[in-house]
Write a structure and sequence with these properties.
Layout: E1 2-8, H1 11-25, E2 31-35, H2 48-59, E3 66-71, H3 75-86, H4 89-92, E4 95-98, H5 102-114, H6 119-127, H7 131-136, H8 150-158, E5 163-168, H9 177-187, E6 193-198, E7 201-204, H10 208-212, E8 221-227, H11 231-243, E9 269-271, E10 273-276, E11 279-286, H12 302-331, H13 333-346, H14 349-362, H15 366-382, H16 387-390, H17 393-408, E12 423-427, H18 432-436, E13 443-448, H19 456-464, E14 468-470, E15 484-488, E16 493-495, H20 500-524, E17 528-529, E18 535-542, H21 548-553, E19 559-563, H22 577-591, E20 596-599, H23 627-632, H24 634-647, E21 653-657, H25 663-683, E22 692-697, H26 700-704, H27 706-709, E23 715-718, H28 720-727, H29 746-761, E24 765-768, H30 779-785, E25 789-792, H31 797-805, H32 809-820, H33 825-846
Parallel strand pairs: 1-2, 1-3, 3-4, 11-12, 12-13, 13-14, 18-19, 18-25, 19-20, 20-21, 21-22, 22-23, 23-24, 24-25
Antiparallel strand pairs: 5-8, 6-7, 6-8, 9-16, 10-14, 11-15, 15-16, 17-18
C-alpha cells in the first residue's frame, strides 16, 4: 500500500485533511500528518523533524511500500526536502514528494491507494485531482477575464510585451553552477523580469539555486521570457551568452562523473574514483572542520535576527571574494569561478526568504533559521538525477556553512590540518574553500569518503598537482591518524593498510612518477634559449613567500610579480614596516640572488580590505585602485616603500607600481621616494638609493604615453588581465561582456606591440605577467612581438620553457606578423592553437 503524509503550516488544517480523507475512504488508508510547530508562541510553521517522524511512522508498517508526501506551500516544501535528509539511507528511496493540491490531491491519492494502486498510479491520480473541479466550473469561465499563463502574469503586471527566446543548452555538463552564475549575473544588469522554463517548470532567472535545481542537461530546451523596459536587451544578451556556450569552454577537460563507492577490499585495496593523477604513500592525517553546534532558540526581536543573518551573508560574500582572488592568482580564473557561483548561492532570494520566514513565523534565531533553509536547498540539489549537478550540493553546503560559522562565532577558515610531517589528507569530502587554503607542500595526497572528479575540490587538487582519490565510502573515516596508506590517483586505488612489500612498491612507483614529472622541471632549471640563440627570462608570479619553493622547483629565474596585497588580507590592520621588511628579506633570501619584483599594494576593483573602510564606488574598477589609492593614502603607502627600499639594500629587489595612467603619478612617486630616502639616511638605516622602478602597463592611457613613462622607469611589465578589460571596455565580472575580456583581441595585441616598441626605443626591457604569459599557444606570439621576459603561475614554467627552446626568433616574428594582420580574437586563437598542436605532435613523435 502507498502511504500518505500531509504537511501543512497548520496542525488543525493537516488533521482536518486527514479526517476528511478517512471519512471518504471509510478505512484502509495509511495516512500521517505533520502540521504546525511545537512552539507555543509560534504554532504556525513547519518542522523537518516532525515531517521525518511522520514518514517513518508509515514506513515501519509492513503493509506500506512507499510514502507520498503532499505539502501546502512555502516552507512546507522546504521542510519536506530537509526531512528527506534526516531519514535513514535505506528509507529514502521509498519516499516521494508530490506537487499535487493538498486537499484534492490527498483525497484522490487515498482512494487510488485503497484499491491497490501502484506508486505511479497514486502519484498520477493526485496530480490530476483538480481536473474534475476545472471541468465542473468551465461554464463560469465566460464571466471571468481570459486566463493568463502563470509565467506571464508577472510580466503583465510589470507592463510591456513579453519577449521570448528558445535555447538549446550547448554545455557538455548542462546548466551547472558556473554557467548558471553567469546567467544570473547577466540578468541582474537589466531592468527586466526574466524567467526560465524547463520541462514545464518555470523559475526566476535571478535565482541561482532554482536554476541549477532545474536539472538542465546538455541539449535540453529552455524557454526564456522577459518583460520590462529592457526586455529586448536582456534577451539579446542571453542569446549572445548562449551562443558563447554560456561562458564555458567548448572542450570540457573535467572527467566524467563516475559513480563508484568502495567496491573492492581485496588485499586491503579500496576502489574509489580517480580524481587527480599521481602516486602517494605516507601517514594519514584527517582534515577536521570545527563542529558547528546549532541549538535552536526562540527569539522575541525578529528584526534583530534578520539583520544578523543579512550581515553574516554579506561578511561571507566578502570572504568568498577574497578566496576567488587568491585562487585565481594561484591556479587560474577558470577554477576560481566556483566562488562567484557560491556568492550567488548564498545570496539567492529564495534561500534568504525561507530563512527570514522561519525567523518571523517560527521566531527562530538566525543560525537555526539559516540551518533549516540551507538543509532544504541542499536536499533539493542532492535529489537531482544528474550526478554532476547533484554534486553541486557540496558547493552550496560549503558556502552555507560559512554563514553558519559566522552566526555561531566559529572563525571562517578554521580547519585542523597540521600534521607533524607531510601526510595524506583524509576527509569526508573536500570543498573549494578547503583546498584553496591547504598548505600544499604538506599534502602528499588526498583521500575522501565522498565526492567525485568533477567536484570543485578535486578540480583545485588537480590544478595544484596533488594526487587524489575520492568516493571510497566509509572506509576513509576508519583510517587512524598516522597509519601508512597509499593511493593511485590515476586508477582510483587506495591501500588502507599496505604491508611492507606494498609500501615499498608504492614508494618506488611514486619515485618513478615524480621522476617523470620532475624531468620537465629539471630541464626548466636551465635558461630558456631559442634555437636561434636568444634567451627569454621566465619568472614566477607569487602571492606569498611560501610559494617560492614551488616556483624555484619549476625553474623560475626569479619572481616577476610579488602581489603584496595578499599580505594585507585576513587581518585587522595593515602589516607594519618591520613586518613587511622581514617578509621581503625572507623572499629575496630564498631566491638566492635571483631578482624579486615587488608590486606595491593593489587594492580596489575586486580587492577590498575591510579595515581600510574604502568607500563604496559605483564602478570600483574605474575608481580608487592601485597607485591612485596609495598616493592618496600615504599613511599606508610610506611604510611599504620604506620596507622595500630597506630590503633592497641587501638583495636584488625591484619595485613595480600598478594601475599607472598618468606621467604625473610617477613624478609624485619619485618625489615620495626621495623624501623616504632622506628619512632613512637621517635615521642611519641602510637602503638602496638606486632602487630599480617599473610600472604595470594595464590601462590604455599607459600604452598611449608609454614613450613618456619609459623615460622615468627602468622596466615595463604588461598586465594583460586588466589591459584587456580596459581596452575592450568590458567588466570581466559581467557575464554579458566577459567574453570580450580576451588578451587575443587584436586591439590588445597591438597595445602590447606599441608598449614593446616604446620600451625598447628608450632602452628598457618589457615583460608580461598576465595569465597570457602561461598560455602555451601565446608563447611564440609574445616572443615575436618582442617581449623580453615572461612571468607566470609556477606550474606553467617547465612546459613554456620547452616551447621557447623549440622556437627560432624569425619563426616567432613571422607568427606575430601574421597575427597582427588578423581581425578577430577567434581567428587568432584558432591559428595559434593549430601551431601549438603541430608543435606538440612533433615533440611527441621525436620523443
Amino acid at each position: 500500500m502507498i502511504g500518505l503524509v500531509i504537511v501543512s503550516h497548520s496542525a488543525r488544517l493537516a488533521e482536518g485533511v486527514r479526517e476528511l480523507v478517512e471519512q471518504v475512504v471509510q478505512g484502509g488508508a495509511a495516512i500521517a500528518t505533520a502540521g504546525g510547530t511545537e512552539i507555543p508562541d509560534a504554532p504556525i510553521g513547519t518542522d523537518p523533524a516532525k515531517v521525518a517522524a511522520a514518514i517513518e511512522s508509515l514506513l515501519i508498517r509492513p503493509e506500506v511500500s512507499d510514502v507520498l508526501v503532499l505539502m501546502d506551500l512555502g516552507s512546507a516544501i522546504m521542510s519536506a526536502e530537509a526531512a528527506f535528509e534526516l531519514l535513514p539511507e535505506a528509507m529514502r528511496s521509498r519516499v516521494h514528494l508530490c506537487e499535487a493540491p493538498l486537499v484534492e490531491g490527498a483525497l484522490a491519492a487515498a482512494v487510488r491507494a485503497k484499491i491497490g494502486g501502484s506508486l505511479a498510479e497514486v502519484y498520477a491520480e493526485a496530480r490530476e485531482a483538480l481536473a474534475p473541479k476545472i471541468e465542473q466550473l468551465a461554464s463560469w469561465q465566460h464571466l471571468l477575464p481570459a486566463p493568463v499563463p502563470a509565467a506571464e502574469t508577472t510580466f503583465e503586471q510589470a507592463g510591456g510585451e513579453v519577449v521570448e527566446l528558445t535555447i538549446v543548452v550547448p554545455n557538455q555538463l548542462g546548466l551547472h553552477a558556473r554557467p548558471a552564475a553567469r546567467l544570473v549575473t547577466l540578468v541582474a544588469q537589466y531592468d527586466a523580469q526574466v524567467t526560465i522554463t524547463h520541462q514545464g517548470r518555470t523559475v526566476p532567472a535571478t535565482s541561482l539555486n532554482q536554476l541549477v535545481t532545474l536539472g538542465v542537461r546538455q541539449h535540453d530546451v529552455l524557454v526564456v521570457r522577459a518583460s520590462g523596459p529592457e526586455a529586448d536587451a536582456a534577451i539579446a544578451a542571453i542569446e549572445a551568452l548562449a551562443l558563447d556556450n554560456l561562458g564555458d569552454p567548448i572542450e570540457v577537460t573535467e572527467p566524467t562523473e563516475i559513480i563508484a563507492a568502495a567496491v573492492s577490499e581485496e588485499n586491503n585495496v579500496v576502489v574509489g574514483v580517480p580524481a587527480s593523477e599521481g602516486i602517494a604513500v605516507g601517514p594519514a592525517f584527517h582534515l577536521r572542520a570545527p563542529t558547528i553546534e546549532v541549538e535552536e532558540h526562540i527569539v522575541t526581536d525578529t528584526a534583530k535576527e534578520r539583520q544578523r543573518l543579512r550581515e553574516a551573508v554579506a561578511a561571507v560574500m566578502e570572504q568568498l571574494r577574497t578566496l576567488r582572488a587568491e585562487t585565481s592568482r594561484r591556479v587560474g580564473a577558470a577554477e576560481a569561478g566556483i566562488f562567484d557561483a557560491q556568492i550567488l548561492m548564498i545570496g539567492d532570494r529564495e534561500l534568504l526568504d525561507t530563512a527570514e520566514e522561519a525567523i518571523e513565523l517560527r521566531r527562530l534565531d538566525a543560525a537555526s533559521a539559516w540551518n533549516l533553509a540551507l538543509s532544504a536547498i541542499v536536499a533539493r540539489y542532492r535529489a537531482l538525477n544528474d550526478p554532476y549537478l547533484a554534486r553541486r550540493a557540496e558547493d552550496v553546503l560549503d558556502a552555507g556553512q560559512r554563514v553558519l560559522r559566522h552566526l555561531v562565532g566559529v572563525p571562517a577558515d578554521t580547519l585542523l590540518f597540521d600534521p607533524p610531517e607531510p601526510a595524506i589528507l583524509v576527509a569526508a569530502d573536500l570543498r573549494p574553500s578547503d583546498v584553496a587554503r591547504l598548505p600544499a607542500e604538506r599534502v602528499l595526497g588526498i583521500i575522501t569518503a565522498e565526492g567525485g572528479p568533477t567536484g570543485h575540490g578535486a578540480i583545485l587538487a588537480r590544478s595544484l598537482g596533488i594526487p587524489a582519490v575520492t568516493g571510497i565510502g566509509a572506509a576513509a573515516m576508519t583510517i587512524p591518524d598516522g597509519q601508512i596508506v597509499g593511493l593511485d590517483g590515476s586508477a582510483g586505488h587506495v591501500w588502507l593498510a599496505p604491508d611492507p612489500q606494498t609500501i615499498e612498491q608504492l614508494r618506488n612507483r611514486r619515485e618513478r612518477w615524480l621522476a617523470e614529472r620532475s624531468e620537465l622541471r629539471k630541464r626548466a632549471q636551465g635558461v630558456a634559449r631559442l634555437r636561434s640563440g636568444e634567451t627569454v627570462e621566465v619568472a614566477a608570479n607569487i602571492n606569498l613567500p611560501d610559494e617560492l619553493e614551488a616556483a624555484l622547483l619549476n625553474g623560475a629565474e626569479g619572481v616577476g610579480l610579488f602581489r603584496t596585497e595578499f599580505l594585507y588580507f585576513e587581518r585587522e590592520a595593515p602589516p607594519s614596516e618591520e613586518e613587511q621588511l622581514a617578509i621581503y628579506r625572507d623572499a629575496a633570501r630564498r631566491l638566492k640572488g635571483k631578482p624579486l619584483v615587488i608590486r606595491t599594494l593593489d587594492v580596489g576593483g575586486d580587492k577590498s580590505l575591510p579595515y581600510l573602510r574604502q568607500p563604496h564606488e559605483p564602478n570600483p574598477f574605474l575608481g580608487q585602485r592601485g597607485l591612485r589609492y596609495c598616493l592618496d593614502h600615504p599613511g599606508l603607502f610610506r611604510p611599504q616603500m620604506r620596507a622595500i627600499l630597506r630590503a633592497a639594500a641587501d638583495y636584488p629587489i625591484r619595485v613595480m607600481f600598478p594601475m599607472v595612467s598618468r606621467w604625473e603619478e610617477l613624478v609624485m612617486v619619485d618625489a615620495l621616494i626621495d623624501e623616504i630616502c632622506a628619512e632613512l639616511q637621517a635615521e642611519g638605516l641602510a637602503f638602496d638609493e638606486d632602487l630599480q622602478r617599473g610600472v604595470m602597463i594595464e590601462t590604455p592611457s599607459a600604452v598611449l604615453i608609454a614613450d613618456h613613462l619609459a623615460r622615468l622607469v627602468d622596466f615595463f611589465s604588461i598586465g594583460t588581465n586588466d589591459l584587456a578589460q580596459y581596452i575592450m571596455a568590458a567588466d570581466r565580472d559581467n557575464a554579458a561582456v566577459a567574453n570580450l575580456v580576451n588578451p587575443y583581441q587584436p586591439a590588445v595585441l597591438r597595445a602590447i606591440r606599441e608598449t614593446v616598441e616604446a620600451g625598447h626605443a628608450n632602452g628598457i626591457k618589457v615583460s608580461l605577467c598576465g595569465e597570457m604569459a602561461g598560455d602555451l599557444k601565446a608563447t611564440a606570439l609574445l616572443i615575436g612581438l618582442g617581449i623580453d621576459a615572461l612571468s607566470m603561475t609556477p606550474t606553467a614554467i617547465p612546459i613554456v620553457k620547452e616551447r621557447i627552446r623549440r622556437l627560432e626568433l624569425t619563426e616567432a616574428k613571422r607568427i606575430a606578423a601574421m597575427v597582427l594582420e588578423m581581425s578577430s580574437a577567434e581567428e587568432i586563437e584558432a591559428y595559434l592553437a593549430e601551431i601549438e598542436d603541430t608543435d606538440v605532435a612533433k615533440m611527441e613523435s621525436e620523443s
